[in-house]
Amino acid sequence: MVIDCSKYAGKCACGREHTMETRAAVIEPGCLFEFEKYMAEFGVTGKRCALYGENSYAATADRHPRAEQQIVLDPTGLHANEISTAEVLAKLEDDVEVIVAVGSGTIHDIARFCAHERGIRFVSCPTGASVDGFCSTVAAMTWYGFKKTLPAVAPEIVLADTEIIKNAPMELVRSGVGDIMAKYTALADWKMAHVLTHELLCEKIYSIMQDAADTVMQSVPGIVRGEESAYADVTYALIMSGIAMQMMGNSRPASGAEHHISHMIEMEPEAFPVKFPAMHGEKTGVGSLIAVREYKRLAKIEDITPYITDYAPIPEEHFRKFFGERLADSLMKENENDCLAKVSREKLSASWGELRRIIDELPTEEYLYGLLEMLDAKRDLASIGVEESELPVLLKNSPLVRNRLTLMRTRRMMKICEIE
What we know:
- 47% of the residues lie in helices and 12% in strands.
- By secondary structure, it is of the alpha/beta class.
- The chain folds into 2 domains: 1-166 and 203-249, Rossmann fold; 190-199 and 253-417, no CATH class.
- A 7-stranded mixed β-sheet has the order 1-4-11-8-7-5-6, with helices on both faces. It has a two-stranded antiparallel sheet with strand order 2-3.
- Helix 2 links the parallel strand 5 and strand 6 (69-73).
- Helix 3 packs across helix 4 (105-118), helix 8 packs antiparallel against helix 9 (228-248) and helix 10 crosses helix 11.
- The protein is globular, with a radius of gyration of 21 Å.
- It starts with a strand and ends in a 10-residue tail after the last helix.
- The model has no long low-confidence stretch (mean pLDDT 96).
């Protein structure tokens, strides 16, 4: 399968002109053996550096892309952060013109960030169907402890070799399914923000994401059976999610309350103990279950009016007490122009029926839980290093990691869930 990404660019019915930096994505068994053919076909020339982790270097041993320089990173404690990017930038030879990422999500974020810093081209070779960021124009980084997206370079070409992807550790595809499962609540949050504040909603992008999520959920039995076509479906969905983000110019179509839950856990606030790390998609999968459960609970309230309270900003004391000095200043800056301030009591009350209908369209928690169970994927907070007793704290504070309107953030205007 070859995705011609150019067809997603251009004038759209939503009123915007979508741009696309990625030219094509190839999802085929053995396509890494044809690396040179695709580089020539799309005119990607110049001195190359291939960036690997030790695991992806071993996994692709018989089909390493030709590169004048190779950098292989130790996977122990490896994260996309200021430490790993500094290491790569220090090792990267001055005359390199193309970075080729051969690995999963972390390797890709490091590579795309370094490509942006050097002003050079970027090619993606995913070795696991683990995250939806392969085609992203931004890098998801933990920057001095703060989870944020930084300017980066989208790949010109994606070569996803399904022979490699199918044989990757099972935890990678579990993570990928969790990251795509997250699109259900992300899309619901986007649609609800559109209702409440008239935030731009592109139906074309919305449909791309909805179709990607549905395809992956239907592919779960095939993944369990080890069918290469099912792995190709997940890879396709992950790449299409990145294309949707390129079209939108940000992560809105792919990231909502469930991602904010994941990001807060990754930040490890001072007053929020995290016992051990988990993969990004594992956390967004659990975050999806949590968000769906809470949204369905709220939707049982027929008339929200008696519960609505005035908007109030979060006091500085709360940021410092909960997140700690390491994170407080960054998060206060993130929340300076709080998107929730645009929501009036009257609008929330008048729109509640429509918000309930949007929530009603979400898959049930039981359905999503069953899919994760089929994969033997992580399905509760304890499995991703967080005590179940911390759930109320997580619901209240996770929206603060990103200034993006979600129903979870809107809970601050409901008396039943004021921040204490």
